[in-house]
Amino acid sequence: MDKDEKQALKEKKKxxxxxxxxxxxxxxxxxxxxxxxxNPLKFKEWFSLKGIREELKNVHWPTGKELxxxxxxxxxxxxxxxxxxxxxxxxxxxxxxxLGMN
Length: 102
Fold this sequence. Notes:
Blueprint: H1 3-35, H2 41-46, H3 49-58, H4 64-98
């Protein structure tokens, strides 16, 4: 390969990277445009009494059994993590006492 061919290949790769960056930019812009809500009144509708009532209908209220199970899980994890941190603190204190730093 002579110098001209290398230069041409380098320019070709540079052009391809430029086109790829441009395509990715367009793709990002299109993805962003899809996320924008085109109905600005939708937000106002949500803050009306009618909108609030409709939203309350969509809420999943837990049953007593679900609430009890979830509360039990939270309490169990709290107890387990409390034991873990207590044991970790005791081990660190033991190590520091063995090193004479306490």
